[in-house]
């Protein structure tokens, strides 16, 4: 069994079985054999049962008399659960989740940028400016990913809309996987210009400009992803 630091044996079993279900190794409707899981992961039946309780709370499994424990239909999964999001984005190109992420972002983030342009404080602007200033020509993929996650989170925080801010914590899980993929393949030198365009529109309190700049940024991000997909399919 793989080791997942800080989660303990119980957490490791949750991770392992959760991944199996989300990646389709245990398909919806299939039955989970507790004895087999106990042997596979070399843990007690108590640990397996406790792990399945956690997965049941996430909507992944259920148990019925005479049927046993089985995988629930995908439509019943808690897809916005942080663990489920993380497991799904571990294969971002193969799962189709990047397409779903783009559709969510193109709905949420341009509207967030528009609100930020009208509501941002000097403190908001200072944080956004400092985040982009951390990116230099020598910055590697990890530094750019860190700055990108912070910038998008801070921008929605500048909207001062609590529900939008919560949306970014959902988006961030997928965005991290997307960024690691894209920036590892390149696209580092063109990171700053589209982000700076958003920031300058927000700084100028230009709501229309901020919305347009964010839309352009996201469309460019989608183009970068398609370019990488094209390489993988050759």
TrEMBL record:
The keyword DNA-binding applies. Gene3D superfamilies: GntR ligand-binding domain-like (1.20.120.530), Winged helix-like DNA-binding domain superfamily/Winged helix DNA-binding domain (1.10.10.10). Residues 7-74 form the HTH gntR-type domain. The keyword Transcription regulation applies. SUPFAM superfamilies: GntR ligand-binding domain-like, Winged helix' DNA-binding domain. Keywords: DNA-binding, Transcription, Transcription regulation. CDD domains: WHTH_GntR. SMART domains: FCD, HTH_GNTR. This is FadR/GntR family transcriptional regulator. It comes from Sphaerisporangium corydalis.
């Amino acid at each position: 069994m793989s080791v997942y630091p800080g989660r303990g044996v119980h957490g490791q079993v949750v991770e392992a079985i959760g991944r199996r279900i989300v990646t389709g190794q245990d398909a919806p409707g299939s039955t989970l054999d507790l004895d087999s899981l106990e042997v596979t992961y070399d843990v007690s039946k108590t640990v397996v049962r406790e792990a399945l309780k956690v997965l049941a709370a996430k909507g992944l499994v259920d148990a019925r008399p005479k049927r046993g424990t089985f995988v629930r239909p995908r439509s019943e999964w808690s897809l916005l659960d942080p663990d489920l999001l993380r497991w799904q984005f571990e294969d971002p190109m193969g799962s189709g989740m990047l397409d779903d992420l783009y559709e969510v972002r193109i709905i949420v983030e341009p509207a967030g940028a528009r609100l930020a342009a009208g509501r941002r404080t000097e403190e908001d602007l200072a944080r956004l400016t400092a985040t982009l200033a951390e990116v230099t020509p020598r910055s590697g993929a990890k530094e750019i990913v860190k700055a990108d996650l912070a910038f998008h989170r801070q921008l929605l925080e500048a909207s001062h809309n609590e529900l939008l801010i919560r949306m970014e914590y959902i988006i961030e899980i997928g965005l991290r996987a997307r960024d690691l993929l894209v920036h590892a393949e390149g696209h580092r030198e063109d990171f700053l210009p589209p982000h700076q365009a958003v920031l300058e529109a927000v700084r100028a309190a230009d709501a229309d400009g901020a919305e347009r700049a964010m839309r352009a940024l996201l469309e460019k991000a989608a183009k970068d992803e398609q370019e990488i997909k094209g390489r993988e399919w050759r």
